[in-house]
Amino acid sequence: MNTQIKPKILIARAIFPEALAKLEESFEVRSNQADQIITPEELQKELASVVGALVTGSERIDASALANAKDLKVVANISVGYNNFDVPAMTAAGVMATNTPDVLTDTTADFGFALLMATARRITESEHWVRNGHWDKWSIVNNPLGVDLHHSTIGIIGMGRIGQGIAKRALGFGMNVIYYNRSRLAESDEKACGAKYVSKNELLQTADHVVLVLPYTTENHHTIGAKEIALMKPTATLVNIARGGIVDDAALAQALKANKIFAAGLDVFEGEPNVHSELLKLSNVVLAPHIASATEKTRRAMVDLAIDNLRAALAGKKPPSLINTELLKA
Ligand code: DGY
Question: Which residue minimizes the CA distance to atom 2 of ligand 1?
Answer without folding.
Answer: 79
